[in-house]
Structure formats: structure tokens, C-alpha cells
Write a structure and sequence with these properties.
The complex is a heterodimer of chains A (76) and B (224). Chain A is mainly alpha-helical. Helices cover 76% and strands 0% of the residues of chain A. Classes of the chains: A mainly alpha (76), B mainly alpha (224).
Chain lengths: 76, 224
């Protein structure tokens, strides 16, 4: 497996969708190629950092409005 | 990390019981549902509109539509896939510039099937290179020397959000749901009505774009 091929397959590998034989080729390449190992680590770190992003929910007043709307809806 | 370990998988709740409770008028059930889902719905809405206020309006509207449509909800799709479609439509309607003639799902499918060059193509030696055919010509550096706090810092989150905002619609939707929200790939495919392989194509392009942004930031832009 070439470095280029490895970069193209990195998402399939991380998603666990590479066929067994391809996975073994992938892992054999990573074992002997430091730049590809670094690349794979970077992709994992990218996913980890992305999963750590937080977002605020709707405001308490918007939530209250929704619960009120629900009460109206359930009395229909 | 094992290659097969899905990122941030979450346990499904018993949805038919939940929907039943809503139909009965169980206010606590609705509050639980709103609390469990409004945060990611805000994120999706924010990826279409430009202000928090208008994102919040879109999320509120989505919940009202959800209630109105509840009696017709068959449970064929997961509740959150359904919520995703509703909140996306509400937010897109609010975003003035959207191309309304093309349905979102169609847009995502077209994009997944479009042909784009592989990322990082410029960083490899040519296949005809005498000594290193197809090998890295510009090395990637390991990031393991970076302190944990730096990688998970607010600033990194800001760079990721900024890079995500420049992604195409399909890539952004897949990235936000799969990597940021940690949905299973099955849930992402259902919400976006795309195949698993199309989903991975979009995710692949998105992750490479985000990685490149972090590389520029973490390595001080020494590689262009």
C-alpha cells in the first residue's frame, strides 16, 4: 500500500469499514511508515477535538414557551 | 483507539414509548425530549443561519412542527432523524440565500457523488519518482507533544467551527452529526438519506479539511 492510498483509505479504516485484507495492508504500512503513522494520529486527534466542542441549548425562556405550547397542543 | 470503536456512540431510548407518552400529553416526557435534543438542533440551525436568535427561532419552530406532525409519525425513521429533517428545513427557510428549488437531501446526494481530488495530493512524490514513488514528500508532524489542554482548548474549538462553516452543506452536515455530535453512521445516513459509502466520502473530505485547519493552527502555519 502506498502512502497516497493510505491517506485515501484513512476514513474507511477509522470507521471500521475496510475489508479484513485491506485493513491488514493498512496496518502493515502504518507500522513501517512514520509520516503515515503521524497522519493517522492527526486524524484521530481531529476527531477527538471535534467531539469535544460544546454548544449551548435554547434559552430557558424559549424552553418555557415550548412547554406551554405543548400544554396547548395536548388539550386540543 | 480500536478502528472499530465508533466515536461517541450513544444508547438509543425506547422511542415508541416516548412518542406514546407525548400523545398522552405527558409534559415531563416532552421536557425530557426537548432537553435531550435542543442542543444539537441549535448546532444544526446555526450551521444554516447567521445569528443565535434566528437559530433559536428555527429550533422552536421545529418543535412546534414536530408536535403537529406527531400523529402522523410512523416510527419508521428514528425520532432524531425526523427532527433533523424538520430543523434543517426550518433553518434553511430562514436563511435567505438558500437554493430552495433543490431539496437538501438531493443536494447532499449530488455532492457525495461528485468527484473531487484526494486531499493532500500535493504532499506526495509522484508515482514515477525514482527513489520514493508515491511516498510523502512533505511530512506530517505528530501532534502527541501537544498538551491535552491545548488540543481541547476553546481556541481549537473556534478553529474547527470556522473550518466547518467553510465546508459544503453535505460535508458539514455529516461532520457535525458524526464527529461533533457522535451519532452512529447509521443514524447519520438515515437523517441525510444517503448510503453508508456516500456518507464516508463526505466525512473523509470534511475530516481532511478540519485536520488541515488544525495543522495550520497547531504547527504555526509552517506548511502551506
Amino acid at each position: 500500500m502506498s502512502c497516497r492510498e493510505l491517506v485515501a483509505l484513512v476514513t474507511e479504516y477509522l470507521e471500521g469499514t475496510l475489508p479484513r485484507f485491506e485493513r491488514l495492508r493498512f496496518e502493515r504500512h502504518v507500522a513501517v511508515c512514520p509520516p503515515c503513522r503521524a497522519h493517522l494520529d492527526q486524524m484521530r486527534e481531529t476527531i477527538r477535538a471535534s467531539g469535544a466542542i460544546t454548544e449551548e441549548s435554547i434559552s430557558p425562556s424559549a424552553r418555557d414557551d415550548l412547554l406551554e405550547a405543548f400544554a396547548d397542543w395536548s388539550e386540543r | 483507539m480500536e478502528p472499530h470503536a465508533p466515536v461517541g456512540e450513544r444508547t438509543p431510548v425506547d422511542e415508541s414509548a416516548l412518542v406514546e407518552a407525548l400523545r398522552r400529553g405527558d409534559r415531563d416526557a416532552f421536557a425530557t425530549l426537548v432537553d435531550a435534543n435542543s442542543r444539537w438542533m441549535m448546532r444544526i440551525a446555526l450551521s444554516h443561519v447567521s445569528s443565535r436568535a434566528s437559530a433559536e427561532d428555527a429550533v422552536q419552530e421545529a418543535w412546534l412542527r414536530c408536535l403537529r406532525g406527531l400523529d402522523g409519525f410512523q416510527g419508521r425513521s428514528a425520532l432524531k432523524s425526523w427532527l433533523f429533517v424538520i430543523v434543517t428545513n426550518c433553518a434553511r427557510r430562514r436563511a435567505e440565500h438558500d437554493s430552495r428549488s433543490v431539496p437538501f437531501s438531493e443536494l447532499v446526494r449530488r455532492e457525495a457523488e461528485s468527484v473531487e481530488p484526494e486531499p493532500l495530493e500535493d504532499r506526495f512524490f509522484d508515482d514515477s519518482h525514482r527513489r520514493w514513488p508515491g511516498a510523502w514528500s512533505t511530512f506530517s508532524h505528530g501532534w502527541e507533544a501537544l498538551p491535552e489542554q491545548r488540543l481541547l482548548a476553546r481556541e481549537v474549538a473556534g478553529r474547527i467551527e470556522c473550518a466547518a462553516s467553510r465546508l459544503s452543506e453535505g460535508q458539514r452536515a455529516v461532520f457535525l452529526l458524526r464527529d461533533v455530535e457522535g451519532w452512529s453512521s447509521e443514524d447519520v445516513c438515515n437523517a441525510l438519506e444517503i448510503s453508508g459509502s456516500n456518507q464516508r466520502v463526505l466525512l473523509h473530505r470534511a475530516r481532511h479539511a478540519i485536520r488541515a485547519e488544525l495543522e495550520e493552527y497547531l504547527e504555526g502555519g509552517e506548511q502551506s
